[in-house]
């Protein structure tokens, strides 16, 4: 039997089965993404910073942490790691081969990224909330520039642009536009609907260009779910509310594991077409961050998450257009610099 050159396969007194050999071959095929043969503190810090940027992005309605992962170069590594929570991983855990299990799912990468995401959300949620309430055009200008630069960078991940890639990109644009134009749901809190909402929303969080929080808003469960979580943290909960939170978490886990494996398969077998579709999602969602929009008179005094926005022609904009352009340009430059640094770090990280 062919011996796969992998830390798991080279464990003493172990002969992999056919299914395990296939999984180990997958590890080898993605070695350039996992890079777990010689992890370093510097790599952990970089991955923590990547996670911090993802968490910061997830605090802004309409912005996806998946977009940040795509730009910073760890998107496929993230999808691959999540997709490996499978039967082989479970068998390693049952056999108490925890080190092999950790390497198989790239645990060190996931841990550093997860800590960064949590830190970004906790530390910047309040700041972003204030900015969206008081400096929404300026905040949108920054993220508009970030997304534009991201699209320009990610297009290089498509090795060839032919008819299939063009169609995939067009479908991605259409899907993103359709999602942003859907009416808000009624807020059904039944357990099956909560499970469905969570499953779809967590899939959206993996995809660039679509915000998981926005999908929850479309289903009408964003505010009820966040309210349940806040009450539970304060100690105000009932058996019904705990069951709703539990079903929501189960839906997130199901959607994350199922969709990540599907997305990983597409990235492995149809990479250019899949990347083109992801670019389309980013293009279709960028209009939601157009800085020249203001709340309708009826909703102007509400919090940002409750406002209904309307576009304003450039000639009628009451603020400084030059400032908005400057912020967008600065964001573009920042993305290019960060992407360049990420590439240098990856090139210096041993494969």
TrEMBL record:
Can you name this protein? Answer: DUF368 domain-containing protein
Q: Which spans are transmembrane here?
A: 109-132, 139-157, 163-182, 194-222, 242-263, 317-338
Could you list this entry's UniProt keywords, alphabetically sorted: Membrane, Transmembrane, Transmembrane helix
Source species, domain of life: Bacteria
Short name of one Pfam family for this protein?
A: VCA0040-like
**UniProt-annotated stretches for the region Disordered:** 1-20
